[in-house]
Amino acid sequence: MSSNVDADPLLTTETQQPRRSKFLCPALVITGLTCLTLAIVFSFISFQASFYQEGVPIRVLALNTWGMPYNIFGGLDKEIRMPAIAQMIQKKEFDVYFLEELWMRPDHEKIRQKASAVGYHMTSYDSMTQRECPYIPLDFLCCDGSATPSGCSGLAVVSRYPMKEVQFTIYNDHGPMAGGEKMARKGFGRVRVSPSENITVDLFVTHTCASDLVEDKATRESQVKQLLTAVRESTADFAILGGDFNSDPRAVNETTYGLLKNQMASSMEDFFQRIANWLIPDRATYGNPRNTYSYTYDPVLYDYIWHRSNDNNLVLTNLFDIPWLRTHKDGGLHHTDEKDRENSSAEKIREKRSADAKMISLSDHEA
Prior knowledge:
Layout: E1 11-12, E2 23-30, E3 37-39, E4 56-64, H1 70-73, H2 78-90, E5 96-100, H3 105-117, E6 121-122, E7 156-159, E8 165-170, E9 187-196, E10 199-207, H4 214-233, E11 238-244, H5 256-263, E12 265-266, H6 267-272, E13 303-309, E14 314-315, E15 324-328, E16 333-336, H7 338-342, H8 346-355, E17 359-361
Parallel strand pairs: 2-4, 4-5, 10-11
Antiparallel strand pairs: 1-2, 3-4, 5-7, 6-7, 8-9, 9-10, 11-13, 12-13, 15-16, 15-17
Helix pairs in contact: 2-3, 4-5
């Protein structure tokens, strides 16, 4: 990967006589189910062939912020983690941030203010929900977001580029009342941006039904089918989809991952190719051994970034990485780089945890 991502092109497109294909090479980062930072960087490979338009670099981070209120749903250390997430975005290391489980309006506003201060754009809270309360709260047909997350989607997009279009679509099917799936009104957001002249990108962000109950698996499959219909209908040159899909590729009696793979390309598979290189505990987005919240659970992969091109346009994934994003309980971000990771093992991480109790992950998912 180029050390200067800003200089690397990411997209390419096509016109007639001769056709010019657009080339997209995004730096994409995805984060875990509840507040993970799974970082996928699409840096750029330059194409000098006459039929390719110069590529455009886009760096994308998808982060599940684990924004549940602690007093109701147990989102530990949210009052510390949310400012740390806002601080991370303010550093402008990525061009686009997909955020999930940003349930509460005060947390959304905190991040919006930090993003706006550095010239970034953020979807408004109500643009990513069905409608603002009061409406019919008992039917979960409106979004609160002040006292509880009921009726809300928890989705947001932060972008370096001005937003030309913003759209939210609520899923037709929802999970059971148990676990809160029926209370939340999950769906997907679409934001159109133009990172360069004559190049358009539709950014899709989502968070699908959780749990491995038979009913939830069926709901998740239905949601993904609805989402993919919208992706196929996109008229943009490129579509990038990121979020928490709550489905591991090894899931039994479930087709969620296969449905996505049939319609889009996985940035993780683009880069690693061999499943043995990416379906491992160290790259799990939930239950990762290094996570200070979920390390006691079995490691699984729930979070992805997918891409799709229209016409003869091209997206290349040059680098996929999962940074260790943590913060001190008394404030201050800490990023563990690749060298530190190579010198660490799961056992060493567990041993270090007791001596490093003041460090916490940004979520119960790894990034």
